[in-house]
Structure formats: C-alpha cells, structure tokens
Amino acid sequence: MKPASKSNSSPRLNLRKPRASTAGQLKRRAGRIQDDLEPVANAAEEVANTRTLDAVARLGYAITAILHLLIGVVAVRLALGGTGRASTAGAIETLAQDTPGRVAVWIGFIGCMGLSLWQLSEATVRSRRQPARYRLSKALTSGTLSVVYAVLALTFANFAVGPGSDARAGTRHFSAIVLSYPMGAVLLSAVGVVVAGVGVYFIVKGILRKFRPELSFFNSVGGTVIDALGILGHVAKGIALILVGVLFGVAAVQHNPARPTGLDASLKALLDEPAGQYVLAVIGIGFICHGIFGIIRARYGRM
Asked: I need a labelling partner for 69 at 20 to 30 A (CA). Which of 62, 87, 192, 236 fits?
C-alpha cells in the first residue's frame, strides 16, 4: 500500500515543478530587463530634474494663463454685446495676427511642449520610486495632462506655420466622426459626461481650495487674494466645461453632427437664455481670475 501511495504522489510533484520554474524564469527575466533599463531611467530622471525643464514648464504655465486671460476678456466683451471667439484657438489667433505675434506663438509652442514633457516626467521617471498607488495616480493625472499640453503645443504650431484652423469646425468635425459610428451617439454622450465630470472636478477643487498645494508659499495677506482668484477661476472654468459637456450631450441625443459644440459655442449659447449675459460676464471674469492665478502659479508654483 505504501509504495503505491508514493508512486501516485510523485507525478503531482513533477507537474508542479515546471510551473514554479516557469514563474521563476519570468521573474528573473523581468528583473534583468528592469536592470537593463535602469541606466536609461536614471538618465531620463536627471534630465527631468534639470532647472532648464522646470523653467520651460513654468513658461508653459504662463502661456496657458495668458490664454485664460484672453478667453475671459472675449467672454466679457460678448456679454457686453461685442464679438469674438471665446476659445483657445481664438485666443491663439489673437496672438498670431502680426510678426511679433508669430514669435509669441512659437514661444507658446515651446512652453507648452516643455510643460507636456515635464508632466510626462511626473507620470514616469519622477514617480517610479513611489508606492504603486501613487504611481498609478500620477500616471492617470500627469499622463493625461501631458497629452493635453502636447495637443495645445501642436495647436500653437498650427497657427505659427499657417492661418490655423477654425475651432468651431474642428469640434463639429469631431462630433461628425464620432456620430458616424454605430454606437456614435453613446460615445459622444460619454465624451460629454467626461468633459462635464472634469468641470465638476474644477468646481470642487476651487471650493475646497485644493489648489493651495500647487504653490510654494501662502502667507496670510497674499493667501486671501490667491484664494479669491483660485476659487473664482476654478469654479468659472468648471461651469464652462460643464456647458461644453452639455452641448456634446445635446448633439448626441439629437444625432446632429452640425450642432455647434466647444467652449465658444457653449458660452455664446448663454446669450439666448434669460439673464445669460450676466452669467457669461461672471464666467468671463472668472477666466480672467484663473489667468491671474495661473501667472502666479507659473512664478511660485511647486515644480
């Protein structure tokens, strides 16, 4: 009886050994790959920690702040009965109207591309020694911002080398492409929900003053002013993004790819509502506050 028992148990042991061996081989192989990439990661981290990249990233923050200022000015002008395009493309177009403006647009491209690379370093090499949960959070937030700033840099480049594109036509083209798919209405609705969700995030961030850790100082006197700028700016931007999300949702429900979407269309839609011009004026002032806060963040922000 005992010998039979031994013969039955030995195959089980033999079956388990290859599994353990395979797992061990994969682990050792992954370790060797990590060791091979370590010098590359160290070199990338050294570049990411240079003052040059920090300076270019600060320039990028300043550029985005100026865009918010210009959008805010146009929004107030619209509320007062004027004309203009309250959008990123409209703001860049304002800068690119003459030769000095073209130079400013190229500077904008350099700043936003540098900010994109800085955010990419935050999502990768700068956080690689942190806990897994922190790395995942950085990969989602800073990684997304890296893409956003890269797209903004390409928008600057588009205006620097030519007349640029119509942002309104761009968003309509985007809606038309999405709605052309079988589940296009659902996808476009999802885009609207995501954009509106980002808007809610900005509102919460402003009300709870979650922007404070972004600055390297916060004294009592200056802090009160920065609080006001940060709250008004973040809430106004959040409301504008929610409006953009709503327009995407309406275009999806109506299955109308020609319906105007985007920031400019969202803000101008307020003019058709009762007391809409007053709401638009407040949002415009909020964007101006966000721009001033952005300039302060560019100078004194934590890097």
From this structure: 192
